[in-house]
Amino acid sequence: MFTALELPLLAQLTLVKYRLPSLISTFLPLVLPLDNCSCLREVTEKCATSTLNMPRKETVLFSIDGGNNCRIGLPPSALDDAYNRRSLSLGNLPNASHVFFNPKGDMFVVRGGDLYKGPTPSSPWKDWFASAKRIGRADWNKYKLLYFSNSGKLFAVTKEGEWYRGPEPINEEVPWLYKQASKIGGSDWQHFDALFFDFENIMHGVIQGNLVKGHPFSTTDGAWYAKSKQIGEHIWGTLAYFINFSHDGKLWCVSSQDGAIYTASPPTHRGDNWLARARKVGSGYTMYKCLAFTHDKTIKKIKSFDFLVDIGKVLSMEPYFVAEKVYDNKDSSTPLHSTFELNKVEISESQFSHEHGFDFSAEAETSFESGLPLVAKGSIRLAATTTTSHKWNFTEINRTETHFIITSEFEVEPGKAVRQIAKATKAIIDVPYTATVVTLFGYETTISGTWQGASFLDLRIKQEDV
């Protein structure tokens, strides 16, 4: 067990402390750095989250209330700034025990013993679990705290007090605890009310009313708390309902006594009276069992779009049959003068990949106009005339038309028959793109990915005897 002066500060978690009737007060660990939140709902309710290094302009506050209803909005800026009224409803996460984010803004949810990963919910009508990917099975309900460091490492504290660190899980068939994670830091970590990182990857923690900090990566002997530094006065027990760092390095806390939310630069020494200089920017935040900062990664509108045809790749080229017609002059003794006319439309499908990790709101404008990538003279070009400009849909399969038009005049000798065959070459191409998008809360950012589609070229006619 840690003594009163030996307990370390655990990394990236913000605690929401619940006082339940007839029960020992419990904690909702939340990592309030920008990108991690972990919510636990058992007989005692817990929520753990971790700090994330995100650009200030992309930061939003994610919350879950006691009914598992999710909301997202800009962080409060003043006492009369009512987050609960102006934030957006994102539906709910039924039976979720932990919710937390990685530094990229991906959301992780524990339900039962399983771990799921997906984007932040973007619509109150969508079932988040239906589109999320399950990346862990069976053991994920054994943790009290789950949170990421700014470098993307996953940290976990079991209910028995063991502390583990490992890479982000990606495969449900590989048990993270037994195959990927390493036990670090000794035992008794369950006594921490909150654990979280600042933007220098220094771990902070609240225990027995004290706020301490120290570097978490240099020890595996359980001596982290003994080597940590206490900062601020002995006030943090009531301020650990939620505690973490925001995008600009400010420390945020929610009081368990009245639900007030405070923010100020973090304390620097043991006697620093943080609460006296902190700014109160709201009240009633004890209605939430989970709070966390994360990225605004929901697209509302595509502002501009560019195909990067100069670095596009031709993946394959193969012959493509278009049409044929037989001209029979076997029963005639005079030449047959004829014309092969082709006017045909082929439909091809294409779609955009979305490696950017952004999601689209239900009302998002996902259509835009741009030229059509095609192969010509050995390279990929962008056709952008009035006849080749295309209205693209960024989230669905696109269908484009290729018009094959050609005319050939020929002569069939007496007593013969010929077949006119129209062929082309079909190229499958990969073209990177960049797009400037406007997010749900009005921020502009650039995303990238690839478009894969088909291009037809070299339409020709071949004649053969029948």
TrEMBL record:
UniProt feature coiled coil, ranges: none
Organism the protein comes from: Pleurodeles waltl
InterPro entries (UniProt xref): Natterin_C (IPR053237), Tachylectin2 (IPR023294), Tachylectin2_sf (IPR036813)
UniProt-recorded name of the protein: Tachylectin 2 domain-containing protein
PANTHER family, alphabetized: NATTERIN-3-LIKE, NATTERIN-4
Signal sequence coordinates: none
Domain Tachylectin per the UniProt entry, residue ranges: 69-289
Pfam families in the cross-refs: Tachylectin
Alphabetized SUPFAM superfamilies for the sequence: Aerolisin/ETX pore-forming domain, Tachylectin-2
